[in-house]
Design a protein that fits this description.
This protein is α+β, with helices and mostly antiparallel strands. Helices cover 52% and strands 9% of the residues. It has helices at 30-47, 72-91, 113-121, 123-126, 141-144, 156-160, 167-183, 202-214, 222-227, 233-244, 248-252, 260-272, 277-283, 289-305, 307-328, and strands spanning 12-19, 50-56, 60-67, 103-107, 198-199. β2 (50-56) and β3 form a beta hairpin. The two termini are 35 Å apart.
Length: 329
């Protein structure tokens, strides 16, 4: 079974979700809910987590949290396995309770704090369990309104600080912000997640992809290969133009035979770039996808019998890797 990509860092900010097996219930009564909350309290305190928002639903839960130490997997293992063991013991059942491994999205700093916390707190409303989020007792929303004593691991102040310096003003503003989502349901901030892993600006996501590209590929983790940084087409054309001592326009022109630079650029684009074959065909003069595939096949055949050609292409890829590494630093 493919394993999810895990990025665990100091001071990491995450949106975490776990779901019941085949969407079955995780909790059957308030005793179960309190047991889950007690376990979260124990794990969060031991791991030093700062939880900004949480909600426990019948068949899943959401956490929005920061990990001062790189211990997300260890903490989630303790929370999920501990709760599953208690649940199975109480109801004299066996087998999986949770649907595979937890899902974690790495978030860029505090740029999504308000939207993510609101998304978490409005879960019971979206599920039509309650009409207003403060009516649901198993989320952190009431702590934001200070209608009960918040646990030590819950950090409302960081999110509220985005709205006002004065605590009372911030709480009122946050309530208005959340209630604005009752009349008109806001788009989920998670719709902007890249590759199921990153939520942040394009530059921030690109930096992480470059960082992943520097690491050895993790076996059994296909998301690592899929998310690792790949050079844009413009960088490939620039590198090939320099190596073959031609102008970029010559690499892109489509009606010219014996254009080795163009063949090399198309081959590298197909092998190492992000773009689909149709996008590559459009970039290289609006040719057909079949034409791109034929060029790639010819270059591949030549690599097998022409050592100089093979070394030249390998050197080009290394130059692209070097430009990636220098951009990262």
């Amino acid at each position: 079974m493919a394993r999810p990509l895990r990025i665990e860092i100091e001071d990491g900010l995450y949106h975490v979700t776990s779901r019941g097996w085949q969407r079955q219930v995780l909790v059957r009564d308030d005793r179960d809910r309190q047991r889950w909350l007690d376990l979260l309290d124990r794990v969060a305190m031991r791991c030093g987590w700062r939880v900004f928002a949480c909600v426990l639903m019948s068949n899943h839960f959401h956490l929005y949290l920061r990990t001062p130490q790189p211990n997300l997997s260890a903490g989630m293992h303790d929370l999920n396995s501990g709760y599953a063991s208690d649940f199975n013991r109480r109801y004299r059942r066996c087998g999986a309770l949770l649907q595979g491994r937890f899902k974690a999205v790495l978030v860029e700093d505090q740029s999504h704090a308000l939207e993510l916390s609101r998304y978490v707190h409005l879960n019971p409303v979206r599920a039509r369990i309650v009409e207003r989020p403060e009516e649901y007792g198993w989320s952190s929303y009431r702590d934001y309104l200070r209608t009960r004593q918040a646990p030590a691991w819950l950090d409302c102040d960081t999110v509220l600080g985005e709205l006002a310096r004065d605590c009372s003003q911030a709480r009122r503003a946050y309530r208005r912000f959340v209630e604005a989502g009752l009349s008109q349901s806001p788009a989920s901030p998670l719709e902007a997640v890249v590759g199921g892993m990153f939520l942040g600006s394009g530059e921030w996501v690109d930096r992480w992809r470059r960082r992943l590209a520097l690491e050895p590929l993790r076996e059994g983790v296909p998301a690592h290969r899929q998310l690792a940084w790949r050079p844009p087409l413009a960088d490939i054309v620039a590198a090939v133009s320099e190596a073959f001592d031609v102008e970029p326009a010559q690499v892109l022109v489509s009606r010219r035979h014996g254009n080795e630079a163009r063949s090399a650029a198309i081959y590298l684009a197909r092998r190492v770039a992000d773009e689909a074959v149709g996008a590559i065909a459009q970039y290289f003069g609006g040719v057909t996808s079949a034409a791109i595939s034929k060029v790639v096949a010819r270059v591949e055949d030549r690599r097998g019998g022409d050592r100089a050609w093979d070394r030249r292409l390998a050197k080009l890829w290394e130059s692209l890797r070097a430009s990636r590494d220098s951009a990262k630093s």
